[in-house]
Amino acid sequence: MLCAGHWEGGKDTCMGDSGGPLICDGVLQGTTSWGGNPCAWPRRPSMFTELKLYKKWIEVTMGGNPCCPCTFLSKLTSTTLPSALSPFSGL
What we know:
This protein has one helix at residues 55-61, and strands at 2-4, 21-24, 27-34, 46-50. By secondary structure, the chain is mainly beta. Strands 1-4-3-2 form a 4-stranded antiparallel sheet, with no helix packed on it. A hairpin with a 2-residue loop joins strand 2 (21-24) and strand 3.
């Protein structure tokens, strides 16, 4: 687990955000686990699952292909990220 948030409050995760990404400098670092109630209070950061601890399992489970084609709605086309933009670059 790791904690993150704005020390002064006002910006944070809230109810319904579980599983959402924690991205730092363009790199996926964690997924939302839980936060304070009420949300976004000063000096009360949210808790995230630290993904680098699960990197190997995710890569094995994804079959070594962290980015696969996805189709979003009927108006968009399939998209693939180049390997240089792996969500785990920097971990």
